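Collaborator request, handled under Task 6.
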Amino acid sequence: MTKRRVLVFPAGTEIGLEIFQALKYCKEVDLFGAGQDISNHARFVYPEYHLLPSIHEPGWVDALIELCQSLRIDYIFPAYDDIIIALSREADRLPAKIISSPPSACEITRSKSDTYRALSGKIRTPRLYASKEAVRSYPVFVKPDRGQGSFGITRADNEEQLIKALQSICDPIICEYLPGEEYTVDCFSDREGGVLFAGARSRRRIRNGISVNTLTEALPEAEEMANIIGRELGLRGAWFFQLKRAQDGQLALLEVAPRIAGTMATHRVSGINFPLLSIFEEERLPLSVRPIDGIVELDRALGNRYRHSIRFSTLYIDLDDTLLANGRVNILAMKLLFQCINNGKKIVLLSRHRSDLNQTLTRHRLSGLFDEIIHLGETEKKSSHIKQGDAIFVDDSFAERMDVSEHCNIPTFDCSMIELLTEQAESLNGDGE
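Structure tokens returned to the collaborator:
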């Protein structure tokens, strides 16, 4: 099977990171990230991160063409709203296909006012005010016409606040105030079959325009709206729209975006791999979806990824209160073991386990994981059994770690430190050290 070579640009957005999570284990795809030479999380997770200039810099298209040719890229996933437009306008020059809706749909949806005009009379859209003089009652919303999410949105409760908002927001529009619940509807469309999936989720907690707590919900009226929006705008592949309840209880449109959403993971884990399906849709493969039934709640917080200078070829690790904690297998420690197995590192179990060691390993299904097992007596020092200099030692006991550090001069870790080793920036298919 020939793998599709996919470039995500820019890879460091929440959109780019969700595309990575969706595609990183797919056998059909080789994944590459690209973006500016700035600090971003993609440089810690993508197997390869390639530098490209901003789309606002001269020569960016030529640089992208050169990168696509050198990497033999088949598809480009745009991972930011402005880049969707920029790529669609340069599509004829690029040696790779862009995974997105048609250029006309991308142009319309980049503008909220154009989107509202295109869908007016077909679904409920917010009332737009042509000027501040047209506003007869408050509150109203002022937002950038070409913004995304909740960035730049201001509520104006009186004329003074409205004037201030209009002065501070670039290319503002004045909209009807929508006081009710807010939803995102994640969608996937086939260009011939129409909307194959439309799943609603409530936006219960939002930070920097991103849903950090969201809950899937049955919203039948949103499914009908999805069919109308998809048909009228000619959307295909992955896309989403956002809704808010108006004062009269009706759902009104906030925006439509022809791309992956950063929190589409909520429906991805139910069986809708939006990026992979979008590639298949571009290839005109026959498609069907069958999501898992049930409610999913997603809550997001900052996560950690590390780079470090520790190099080792052998892992020495303790059993009690390390690999086993409170009678259960320590999942994070197991992740370290299998990471070492994948990378060809030797694993040595050092234990003073008082019961039958083999029975304990068998009971917890840990047999066969170790290159060597050393069962120590009560008075034996673990440091006396560590022979390799390029090794690390993991043990819950501070005294054991101190002894090994002093006598063997190797890095030592307790269980709270293991994530430095397991959550490191590394290649998916290699050591990365």
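The cover message to the collaborator said: "Residues 127-176 form a domain with the Dna Ligase; domain 1 fold (CATH 3.30.1490.20). The longest strand covers residues 194-207. Please let us know whether this matches your experimental observations."
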